[in-house]
Predict the structure of ATP-dependent DNA helicase RecG.
Amino acid sequence: MRWQELWSALRQVTSRERQFGCTDGSVVGGYAAHGRMLLKHLRACLNPDAAAWGAKLAIWESRLADYQRLSTGERQALLEQFDQLLTEAELRTGLFHDPPVKEAEPTIQPRPLKKVNDGDVPIQFMRGVGPQRAGRLKKLGIETVADLLWHLPARYVDRSSLSLVASVQSPGDYGVAGIIRSQQHRPTRPGLIIYRAQLDDGTGILPLIWFNRPHLHRTFPPGTAVVVFGKAEYRGDSLELHVEDMELQGEARQGIVPVYPATEGLPQRQLQQLCQQALANYGERLRDAVPASVQTQLGLMTIAEAMRCVHLPTSLAEAEAGRRRLAFTEVFLLQMAWQMVRRRRGSSGTGVMHQSAVRELAALWQLLPYPLTEAQQRVIREISQDMERATPMNRLLQGDVGAGKTVVAASVAVKAVASGFQAAFMAPTEILAEQHAINWQRLLAPMGIPVGHLSGGMTKRRKEELLKALQDGSVSIVVGTHALLQQHVVFRRLGLVIIDEQHRFGVRQRATLWGKGQLPDLLVMTATPIPRTLAMTLYGDLDVSVLDQRPPGRQPIKTAHVSSKAWPRIEQLIRREIAQGGRAYVVCPAIEENEELDIAAVEQRFKVLSEDVFPDLAVGMLHGKLKKEAKAAAMEAFAQGKTPVLVATTVVEVGIDVPEATVMVIEDAQRFGLAQLHQLRGRVGRGQSPSYCVLVADKLGDEGRQRMQAMVRTDDGFVLAEEDLKLRGPGEMIGTKQSGIPAFKVADLERDSSLITQAREWAVRYLMNDPHLQAADSRVLADKIRTMFAGLDIF
Ligand code: ADP
Ligand code: MG
């Protein structure tokens, strides 16, 4: 490695180590050990005339050797000195040179590996893989032998028994042995040639069909004895076999045959062969992230054996056992990474210690027009205790829509302020931030706590004033959107970060706001409750509090699914509710990824509703492209009842709180996901009157129907979340891409949920014995975590 790289690695880990509170945890494997190694290699790069520096670096090497024995305070002092030395060195030029290349490159960590690969062997090294095939494999994400082996079959076909032609009576997978009797082929349109043949086994004649594979036609002329595998499907009244595979009798592969996700120019047959070859030549060389001791204690098969099971199973049960074993490796890695993140933060011990603030909290609760629910009290207690500890808090607050998370957030913010710190509250949309700002200002003014609101549309002067006030500490709470993340937002003493609707933000954004304080406490909130295993997967670094009780006196929301023919009745309902002092939202279709079309739809609905349906009522309109003031005005007019009907896009989805609203009409409801429908429904039922949610949907597919039924059946967010997970799968539900966590290749959140729990327990246990993954047994694990979860390092 070149000396500049060594140098910048040293600077980087050192500053990270200081940032993380000198826990020796800034690098997997330990900061001190890592730093010493870097120093040693740097010494080898010193110029001959810089002997004095050689001595200095050697001294520091030995100081770092003692690092683990020092107290946190001593470590901090030491690293401050070290930093000074490094800065001093940077001011000199010509200290280092690159050693001649013939020397073997020292293995320095973190290594700039592209990705994790145990085989580490580029796929081109395999016999039979030239540039063209390598290119095709790359399309499947396969660049190394290990990638290939981790490319698991999507399904298996059971070819352990063959059928007689006479017994092919219904559609399905079959394998049949017989003699090709005749062949035909005919080009239909450019690029498509249909081949047909007839297979005779003495019990009958089976028509075969395949497309665009001339070599089958050539290799198996009439008279050849073959075994054919494929899917029988109806063509008119009779069955024909769609050929997947055809082989000479005696050469056919029988038993359980894997079917891989394939790509053009890379047929099953080749993938199967490649996998077998890789298994034979490289299987034993695969390195497993699960340490040997854990494997032994859990009685796991080796990773090589697991690979054999999935690629060459003797039974379906064996294939599944292999898959689960590989899934365990995968979830174990992730849980391990999360536990490392937790430990690193937790062991720093230099976080903010908030005070109990009993008096201030009592004063705040006095100001509320209602008593806190028991759940609210419990959750506030949990968060408070966490905030009082020296270890930084990292907590997720899950609570269904309308459960009353805001007052929990306000309470803990007051606690932070009473302890002499600032609190920042980040919301995902301007409207929501504004609403929170207004509410918080109103609530906290009597307590003399100034609340700032940072928004995109502020005048330059007011913005500068606010920024200055945050920097000098005269404003103690700030509410805002992503605007808070900007570099020029600087706090004097940020002690608490709260993120609302946190699934709308990525890991990095969380980290950015968090990084504006000195290890502040972090509370993230979500109204999209998620099942436990999903929470463990996505937020494994967080403790979880659950607000599982809604404020009393709420009437349940009546939910109905109707067709658009029911609009006359919907109109009546809206009129009746408004006459009784209520308000109604009409949410227009979400047209995927196209805000312009959404807005067009809203404008059109607005025209119809205001001119034709409710000419006698005032109707308002709200969508994302309105100017900030116009949005605020529309919300205000609705809240005050000046425009009791509000036609809107999903901008009203999140968090909007107008207790008088009692009707939520969602048009084209099938276009929305369950979580979104539930959020929208949560905009009503916030006051004391009974409320209604009307789902208007005409054309329903299966899944759409299930969603509507789920909505009508329950208004429990947790139940709906489970349902959503089943219907849509976890990726879509949460948008894992955004979350910054690599997706599972093998593990399945639902099927493997017990593995996830187990992996977490073992990760905790393992780290107790080897907290920095320094043992020989941890080598592979440490390596993989470092490369796969590089993105989590920042946090
Ligand atoms: P969410 O959890 O969805 O953010 P909010 O914090 O917006 O919910 O609360 C929903 C509504 O319930 C608000 O109008 C709020 O004033 C009210 N509320 C909160 N806590 C209570 C309580 N303990 N008793 C009665 N009403 C409450
Ligand atoms: Mg809320």
About this structure: The first helix runs from residue 3 to 19. The radius of gyration is 32 Å. The pocket of adenosine-5'-diphosphate (ligand 1) is lined by residues 370, 372-373, 376, 399, 401-407, 527, 551, 655, 657, 659, 686 (CB under 6 Å). The domain at 557-714 is CATH 3.40.50.300 (Rossmann fold).
